[in-house]
Amino acid sequence: MAHITAPAPLPVLGFPAKLMPIGGSWIPSSSGQTITVINPATEQPIADVPAGTVTDGLAGLDAACAAQDAWAATPARDRADILARTYQGIIDRRDEFAALIVAEMGKPWIEAQAEVDYGAGFFRWFAESANRLHLDGQFGLEPGGNYRIAVSKRPVGPSLLITPWNFPLAMGARKIAPALAAGCTTILKPAELTPLTSMLLARVLEEAGVPAGVVNIVTTNNSREVVAAIMNDSRVRKISFTGSTQVGRALLAQAAENVMNTSMELGGNAPLIVFDDADLDQAVDGAIVAKLRNGGQSCVGANRIYLQSGIATEFTRRFTERMSATRTGNGVEPDVELGPLVDDKQVTAVSALVQDALAKGATCLTGGTTPEGTGYFYPATVLTNIPANANIRTEEIFGPVAAIYTFDTEDQAIQEANNTPYGLASYVFSQDLGRALRVADAIDAGMTGINRGVVSNPAAPFGGTKASGLGREGGTEGLEAYQETKYTGIQL
Ligand code: NAD
Q1: What is the pLDDT of residues 347-406, one digit of tens each?
Q2: How would residue 13 be classed by pLDDT, with cut points 50, 70 and 90?
Q3: Which residues are catalytically annotated?
Q4: In this structure, is the dihedral angle defined by the CA atoms of residues 76, 77, 80 and 86, taken in order, positive or negative?
């Protein structure tokens, strides 16, 4: 495995350091404290952002509430125009965004650019949706013929948006774009490990004409207290959270107090099933991308690879060859396919899962040892013969570790796939479309990729069942998540 460790150039910030945008101004933390953002490939500081306090969080909420009525009253077409300009603004700064994403999160350059396009795509999609917003109502006679029923949509109101570190642009874009399209104002609390990309997004939104107070960002290393204070205020009408199931559960309990509208994009444990009749080249390509995208730090990452016995040996051989040849290093270097994990805790967690499986009798076909040296690297790893009591069978891996299992029958594959509290993504590889659709229908997950390892698309509803969450982002559902339905009974 090649391991490239050249130092990364510092990215251009494109926004004021140590300040956050609240109510149309860039302000420091009320405590004067800052958080230093670290590059996971070099372990060097990149920049500081404010360590926002409860006071700052509530200032963000005040600003969002003050701007809510005017933003809701802004014609949908004007909101759509702002979103369309934001799309273009992000695309114009593709390299600037990609450099920040690589620097603060660690993914390879080519993936960072793909994230920029994907994230920008939410602004384009929801600009198009906002233009059709007020054409979606109903007007008609009630069945008894006595009076009219009018149904329309209105914005749910000030929305608190909380994002994880793994897609620093796309996770915020997936929430801000539909919220703004629907007429909601927002307070974004990005992950403390990767707040810089959100700051550049705030700058682009300002340049696109978003009025003061419509998008407020609070960076903090005290998420629990800042978020609790905001959620305790009944003026917040929506929380949209992406992150771990554990934190999502705690936030759902807090949301209950004020009966707040909630969207929860939580953890995953995606099965990837390859049948004997799959096109093996296609299946190996799909499994590589579903496993290694973002270094495996993705909620839709292939956590469990199930191979039908007829192709198991050949698939494992080809797949392991590709995993061993993965070029690892600082994401700014050309041709790097696997960057560092986001921090040392992530390396420790992934390594612990691998060591536990090996101690219990699993076989390691490649990788499996944490490299020495600078940066939070972990190699592409393939495990087979994983015993029933290994933790990796049930936990979200969130790293470049492929866990391979075998099965004989279709029923067995479905049963194994569903044997998890999660239900986010799943993947099926088979050239028999009837079988692929049958299995996709039988898997209890919000999303299934058939013969492809990537499913995310701004035009499609992204989200999960069971412990993977509530609600959908993207598609038409993504806009509905920020709307209330209003019914008016009209006697003529
Ligand atoms: P996390 O739950 O630790 O943190 C997510 C966000 O919540 C961060 O902004 C964090 O600062 C904040 N947070 C943490 N504790 C909090 C608390 N007590 N109160 C309020 N906010 C709090 O998750 P993470 O480690 O950043 O991200 C990884 C997880 O996110 C994985 O489980 C992954 O599957 C999940 N994820 C899900 C999706 C999806 O769409 N379903 C997408 C990406 C990531």
Answers
A1: 999 999 999 999 999 999 999 999 999 999 999 999 999 999 999 999 999 999 999 999
A2: confident
A3: 265, 299
A4: negative
DSSP alpha helix (H) spans, 186-270: 196-207, 223-231, 245-257
Determine what percent of the chain is predicted with pLDDT higher than 90: 95
| Residues 310, 233 share a domain | no
How many helices (H) and strands (E) in the chain?
14, 24
Cβ proximity of 260 and 239 under 8 Å: yes
Whether the CB of 300 sits within 6 Å of ligand 1: no
Residue 342 has what pLDDT? 97
The rounded distance, in Å, linking the Cα atoms of 483 and 183 is: 9
44: Cα separation from own chain's centroid: 25
Residue 187 phi, psi dihedral angles, 5° rounding: -125, 115
Listed as own residue / partner, the contacts of 140-149 with beta carbons closer than 8 Å and 24 or more positions apart are 142/489, 146/491, 147/489, 147/490, 147/491, 147/492, 148/489, 148/490, 148/491, 148/492, 149/487, 149/488, 149/489, 149/490
Residues 145 and 161: their CA atoms lie apart, in Å, by 43
Same domain, 236 and 208: yes
- Same domain? 280 vs 262: no
CATH code of the domain in which 436 resides: 3.40.309.10
Ligand 1 atom nearest to 191, measured from its CA: 9
Across the range 200-223, mean pLDDT stands at 98
Please identify which residue in the block is written with the tokens 């391991």.
Answer: 3
Same domain, 243 and 287: no
Q: Is the CB of 249 under 6 A from ligand 1?
A: no
- Write the pLDDT tens digit of every residue in 314-326: 999 999 999 999 9
Which structural domain, as residue segments, surrounds residue 36?
Answer: 20-266+469-491
Q: Ligand 1 center to residue 77 CA distance, Å?
A: 33
pTM of the model: 0.96
Q: Find out whether 82 and 209 touch, Cβ atoms under 8 Å.
A: yes
Which protein residue has the closest C-alpha to ligand 1 atom 23?
243
- Please work out whether the CB of residue 219 comes within 6 Å of at least one atom of ligand 1: no
**Average pLDDT value for the chain:** 96
